[in-house]
Design brief:
Mean pLDDT: 82
Number of helices: 16
Order of helices and strands: HHHHHHHHHHHHHHHH
Radius of gyration: 20 Å
Largest sheet: none
Helix content: over 70%
């Protein structure tokens, strides 16, 4: 019996919020792992939501701008309890990692840098690859099942992600439209309309990334807090892909264009995001703190997540109303298969950066074995890998 055939267990909004509060406090591994945990916990094990709702949430998050994990969480909250659900789930998911990053930011400023962060990440970065690999496998297996066409979409997106080193938003649209045309052909007139809509959305995404990201963040005039809010709002609104996709844009903006941080500080910001649970884009809070203290951290977090919330909640009612539409269902299956392929490709891309010598390779292999064979919980793996990294690098 599949998870989809099993009877659902009604879950209250309170329980859903508590789950995302826990995930935000203990979920390591970045966007690929986090969306995998959501599927494992809510669909497979707890049976709190059905597979269609999860796939709809993931597809909505994948084709809209903003970080994948936060959008998926907000979409799940919306499909469960409307705007209130989206709001409470989003806050619960984001708040724990924000508070942790705020504490680390204070330590960083107070003690003049975080050399131990790099030592921690030496071990944690490798085991995170093992966590993501396991999550990507579970997600692909659960999403594509034994469907050769969906596995074909998976393979294409896997190869494209590895080749390009990035998640390509246009390919998610293309995959969804392709499955619509193959499995739910709506007729010539409707088919042309769907293709035109996909092309228009792709063109808008391209325009955002090509032109709008280059806009001058100094439109806030001489007000540094306003500049921080506007810059990170723009980042949240105009960057497609997972939370990791935002890193190059942030580096260009805060290091080269605005000069708020130097290269070393920016790398420390990314490291802090990766050794804390929850969404990776919470690194903006660290950046904001270095620029303007607690106010800067808060404004940066508001700026990055406000567009994510809006771009999820506004289209969600249409998605929910048409969830039984055969064309939308076909589109969602294609886009979700594409997402699983891109996430698997991200394992290779990120692995090339985190696994670069014999010790890191050993940590990743042992970590994967512990997950698969002994079902060791991810926070324990991260803690153990961090201790190993400290021992190896600071000995």
């Amino acid at each position: 019996m599949t998870a989809q055939d099993d009877p659902r267990v009604e879950v209250s909004l309170r329980d859903l919020v508590l789950y995302f509060l826990k995930l935000g406090a203990t979920g390591f591994g970045g966007p690929a792992a986090l969306v995998g945990y959501m599927r494992r916990d809510l669909v497979e094990e707890r049976k709190s939501i059905d597979e269609d709702t999860y796939n709809l949430s993931l597809a909505l998050a994948q084709i809209m701008p903003g970080p994948l994990a936060a959008q998926t969480a907000i979409a799940i909250g919306y499909f469960h309890s409307g705007v209130l659900g989206a709001t409470l789930v989003g806050l619960a998911f984001i708040l724990p990692s924000f508070l942790m990053v705020l504490a680390l930011s204070w330590l960083y400023v107070a003690y003049g840098g975080l050399p131990w962060v790099q030592a921690l990440f030496y071990g944690i970065g490798a085991v995170v690859i093992a966590i993501i690999a396991n999550a990507a496998y579970r997600l692909a297996r659960g999403t594509n099942k034994r469907d050769p066409m969906l596995w074909g979409v998976f393979a294409v997106l896997f190869a494209a992600t590895v080749w390009s080193g990035a998640e390509l938003a246009g390919l998610f649209l293309l995959a969804g439209v392709a499955i619509v045309f193959i499995r739910a052909w709506p007729g010539a007139r409707r088919g042309v309309e769907i293709a035109a809509a996909a092309l228009a959305l792709g063109a808008i995404a391209w325009a955002m990334e090509t032109f709008l990201l280059r806009a001058d963040a100094s439109v806030g005039g001489g007000s540094l807090p306003l500049q921080i809010l506007l810059f990170f709002t723009k980042a949240g609104a105009f960057v497609f892909g997972s939370g990791l996709a935002i890193v190059p844009f942030l580096q260009q903006g805060v290091v080269h264009d605005l000069g708020w941080l130097d290269e070393h500080q920016f790398l420390d910001a990314v490291a802090v995001a990766l050794i804390t649970p929850g969404p990776v884009v919470i690194t903006v809070a660290f950046i904001g703190y270095l620029v303007y203290g607690v106010t800067g951290a808060t404004l940066a977090a508001i700026g990055i997540f406000l567009p994510v919330y809006v771009f999820t909640v506004l289209p969600a009612p249409w998605f929910r109303r048409h969830r039984d539409n055969p064309q939308l269902r076909a589109f969602v299956s294609g886009a979700t298969a594409a997402a699983s392929g891109a996430i698997a490709g991200a394992v290779v891309v990120l692995g090339q950066r985190a696994i670069f010598d014999a010790p890191t390779a050993a940590i990743a292999i042992i970590g994967l074995a512990l997950i698969v064979r002994f079902k060791i919980q991810e926070p324990l793996l991260v803690l153990g890998a961090g201790i190993v990294g400290l021992a190896l690098r600071l000995a």
